[in-house]
């Protein structure tokens, strides 16, 4: 069989780049799908990577992106729903547009990607989905819109696991804690982000932060044949901080 093909949304971002690199090392061909920077990011990864500019909330663009991948490589084996945003807001001052935008990118996007992969997986006889959630789906610690979107992703995963299992598709969530990426750099100045990172390391039973490669390794495992009997699962990659009380 030719090399399997994975789509990584948000592929130009911090975790997306790490996930794509690991999947390439595992023998995948990888299509990075991002609203910006996808082609440049793919260019840095070599000829088994391709970049497609698309917004995951735009169904027409999603369908066209998947068509492009299939036309190029003939198949789609795995979908990594990684694109995400985390606008900062309080609930008291919530702008409904911010709420909708967060849910659109973090939850509607993955649903649209799954929807348009299904007919291809029906033809191919199986497929894999891993969506990047967050530890905050359990106990919060971010913002209302973000935590709601990540909890929703677990609901979507469990429904997809039931609906798509008979097609041979596994569907899981990898739930990280704090990882140094541009997403967190936007939360405040360097001092604020460092203090935040230190609180996470202190709350970890392992006394460490999670790195992008840790998330990528978990995704690669769930996409591998070793994980063929795992579906509907949430794999926390948090250095144990999913057990920690609220981290302020
Ligand atoms: N970094 C962390 O601490 C952390 C923790 C838990 C979960 N996560 C999740 O991991 C995922 C990746 O985050 P990251 O830390 O790499 O952030 P990042 O900001 O580095 O990357 C996110 C990528 O998503 C892309 N994106 C955003 N909206 C998009 C859209 N509408 N269509 C297509 N692409 C879009 C961005 O352009 C960016 O390249 C996100 O889902 C995030 O919620 C991150």
TrEMBL record:
Pfam families: adh_short_C2 (PF13561). One of its GO terms (biological process) is fatty acid elongation. SUPFAM superfamilies: NAD(P)-binding Rossmann-fold domains. The keyword Oxidoreductase applies. It comes from the Bacteria. Belongs to the short-chain dehydrogenases/reductases (SDR) family. This is 3-oxoacyl-[acyl-carrier protein] reductase. The lineage of its organism: Bacteria, Bacillati, Actinomycetota, Actinomycetes, Pseudonocardiales.
